[in-house]
Specification:
heterodimer; A: mainly alpha; 72% helix; rod-shaped; B: mainly alpha; Four Helix Bundle (Hemerythrin (Met), subunit A); flat
């Protein structure tokens, strides 16, 4: 307890007296001017490295969701395109089957008769 | 990196599933032939009526061809599979000739029917009809009745 009191009283008597530094400002400016100009604008890689992890926390799931949605939309789009491109062809084939006796006979090989 | 590979794989699978589901949803039954002809080739009521008449007239011809094709095919099949006693070569050749003649007759009749229908349409629609349906008719290999040796 006594040690604490003495430390406390000692701290109360302590006064900080910084040394005079008349060249401090000039020193700072000279160091800033000595830096290369390119370092003032960090490179893309540097910016990416400095990408805050807090931003990455929501950006990554957002990008993943976007990729998934894009693939779903692409799958559906391809199906629509395929359907519209082959519709006429399939209808024509179906129609030809209905008027071509050879195809009818082929379809009813086991019991050939007119449908 | 590994997570991105997983995501790409998942996206690929999701795309395939989306394709399959959409195809299934779009897989509606085909309309009947006359409805398709009317819509696809923009038929006027008069043209549609004429084509329906042609179809009605062609039905018995088609039925007759079907029946004869079935009989000829059965005959050929019997001759080709019978080994005891083997058929006379002349008998087999006659059946094959009959089969060929029947196929030619059917093909000519079907083509004639297609051309008669196309003639009822406007020239450009008639040409489109022949271009679309013509190649769908049987491209048979003479002398090789389907399903037979």
């Amino acid at each position: 307890m006594n040690d604490d009191d003495s430390l406390s009283s000692l701290l109360k008597t302590w006064r900080h007296q910084p040394r005079e530094a008349p060249d401090f400002n000039r020193g700072v400016w000279s160091r800033l001017q000595a830096k290369p100009a390119s370092s003032a604008m960090p490179s893309l890689f540097g910016q990416l490295r400095a990408f805050p992890s807090a931003t990455a926390r929501w950006a990554m799931p957002l990008a993943a969701s976007f990729v998934l949605l894009l693939s779903l939309a692409t799958g559906s789009g391809v199906a629509f395109a395929y359907e519209s491109m082959t519709h006429d062809d399939r209808m024509a084939a179906e129609y030809a089957r209905s008027i071509d006796p050879l195809q009818m006979a082929m379809a009813h090989q086991s019991s050939p008769s007119h449908p | 990196m590994k997570r991105w590979l997983w995501l790409l794989g998942l996206a690929f699978v999701a795309g395939i599933i989306a394709f399959a589901i959409t195809r299934r949803c779009l897989d509606h039954p085909m309309p009947d032939e006359m409805t398709w002809l009317r819509e696809e080739f923009s038929l006027t009521p008069t043209q549609a009526a004429s084509i329906e008449q042609l179809n009605t007239a062609y039905e018995p011809v088609c039925a007759d061809h079907c029946q004869r094709i079935g009989a000829a095919r059965r005959r050929l099949h019997d001759l080709e599979t019978t080994t005891n006693p083997p058929p006379a070569p002349t008998e087999l050749a006659a059946a094959q000739t009959n089969w060929q003649a029947l196929c030619d007759e059917c093909t000519a009749a079907t083509r004639g029917h297609l051309e008669a229908i196309a003639a009822q349409m406007s020239p450009e629609q008639g040409k489109r009809y022949l271009d679309l349906v013509g190649p769908k008719l049987t491209q048979r290999n003479p002398g090789k009745p389907f399903g037979l040796r």
